[in-house]
Design goal:
Elements (H helix, E strand, L loop, with lengths): L4 H5 L5 E6 L3 H5 L4 E7 L3 E5 L6 E6 L3 E6 L3 E6 L8 E6 L3 H18 L2
Antiparallel strand pairs: 1-2, 1-7, 2-3, 3-4, 5-6, 6-7
């Protein structure tokens, strides 16, 4: 039998194109326009669209809350985040997918503490 090389190398989509919405926290951080939002095992990362340089990292343990609707993903960062505390909102067609990945990652971490 032939091995399917796509089976083992397929990576889940974890980077999503987003557009930063105007909030007090986004203004303070100088964020406006399109970026990539990377959903990692333990954190969110905001990256430049062109070169994927990481601008901000928000560890899940420092997020006070997060949510979504049809076209918006948002979260509230705590004061221990590099960005400082505040609400960040992103326009995206992938809000539900981002939400579900974060929810799963947090669930896995919680299970590890039991």
């Amino acid at each position: 039998m032939e091995e399917n090389s796509l089976y083992s190398t397929r990576k889940a989509v974890t980077e999503f194109r987003v557009t930063v919405r105007k909030t007090e926290a986004a203004d303070r951080c100088g964020l406006q326009g399109p970026f990539l939002l990377a959903v990692e095992e333990d954190s969110l990362q905001l990256k430049e669209l062109e070169c994927s340089k990481v601008l901000y990292t928000w560890p899940y343990r420092f997020l006070r809350r997060f949510g979504r609707d049809k076209v918006t993903f948002s979260f509230e960062a705590g004061r221990r985040c590099a960005s400082g505390e505040g609400s960040f909102e992103f326009d995206t067609n992938h809000a539900n997918g981002i939400f579900q990945i974060i929810e799963s990652a947090i669930k896995i971490v919680r299970q590890g503490f039991r």
